[in-house]
Automatic annotation (TrEMBL):
Ranges of residues in domain Transposase IS200-like: 76-185
GO BP annotation list: DNA transposition
Highest classification ranks of the organism: Bacteria, Pseudomonadati, Bacteroidota, Cytophagia, Cytophagales
GO molecular function: sequence-specific DNA binding; transposase activity
Pfam families: Y1_Tnp (PF01797)
Source organism of this protein record: Spirosoma foliorum
InterPro entries xrefs: RAYT_transposase, Transposase_17, Transposase_17_sf
Protein name: Transposase
Length: 207
């Protein structure tokens, strides 16, 4: 069974699969920057669609473009000086961690995560439950938003951007690459020289 939901883009979140998710603070990417990134992606996808490549090459080109788009998206978040950076506050990062761990072994099996100053990378294996995973993610974000806004003295303001990025992990090799990507995010951003020195990362035992 596959579970679909849609905001701006369709999401496929199948139970039993491992999913890489990135969600970010509201306002962490200016609308003009996000529009530019999306337009660049759409132009590239149209060019791929108009090419004479066979179906296998086309599928690979589309996947490569999606990876390029995400890399640009994530790099902007890592280097952004403007916008909110609430997650660098230790007490708020702790709220995020508590929420993530609270659903482990219930809605998903937690594999890895990294909490940056304005976004979160999360890798989970979705369990078969009575509710679709997008509701779990909505609940997870809602819990942390309520408690973080209370701590910050904010009312009536969005904490998280509604839209999240998700990608179904295709095989074990990709799983290993994504784990490395998540853990090395603070290293790549120049915050630490070893991922284990970052206080807001997690890796499940046995990985």
């Amino acid at each position: 069974m596959q579970t679909h939901y849609q905001r701006t883009l369709p999401h496929i979140l199948p139970p039993g699969e491992c999913v890489f998710i990135t969600y970010r603070l509201a306002g962490s990417i200016p609308a003009a920057v996000l529009l530019r990134l999306q337009e660049e992606k759409q132009i590239a996808l149209r060019q791929i669609g108009a090419s004479s490549m066979d179906s296998t090459a086309t599928a690979k080109a589309r996947l490569d473009e999606s990876k390029r788009y995400f890399a640009a998206f994530d790099n902007y978040l890592d280097t952004a000086h403007e916008g909110p950076h609430w997650l660098k506050v230790p007490s708020i990062a702790d709220i995020i961690k508590k929420g993530i761990h609270s659903r482990h072994a219930i809605d998903y099996d937690l594999q890895a995560y990294c909490i940056m100053s304005n976004h979160v990378h999360l890798l989970v294996s979705i369990r078969e439950t009575n509710r679709p995973f997008h509701q779990t993610l909505k609940s997870l974000k809602g819990y942390s938003a309520r408690h973080a806004n209370e701590l910050l003295g904010r009312t009536g303001q969005s904490f998280w951007q509604a839209e999240s990025y998700d990608h179904v992990v295709r095989n074990h090799e990709e799983f290993k690459r994504i784990v490395a990507y998540i853990l090395n995010n603070p290293v790549k951003a120049g915050f630490v020289d070893d991922w284990e020195k970052w206080p807001h990362s997690y890796l499940a035992d046995g990985i």
